[in-house]
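INFO  loader      accepted 1 record
INFO  loader      residues=87
INFO  predictor   begin
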Amino acid sequence: LFGVQILIAAKPLKKGDLDLKGIENAYEELDRGSYKYTVERFTSLDEAIDLQVKMREKGFKDAFIVPFHNKKRISMKEARQLLDKSN
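INFO  predictor   done
INFO  writer      dumping tokens
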């Protein structure tokens, strides 16, 4: 699956926090003392790329694609290898 990370925060954000810029469905993940927020989960990399563009237009200038496998973050290289295997 592919998500789009939109921001990192030092403290957990509450629903409706201004930093989320109206995004209601962000996933929160605690990683090494930081709270990472991603949106959506797509099986298609192309859909994730489209969402990344939209999130950057919405003001999340550093938004980037994050691949997941079995509910864990993986590298983009690993994700591409998994995609190649499935095709």
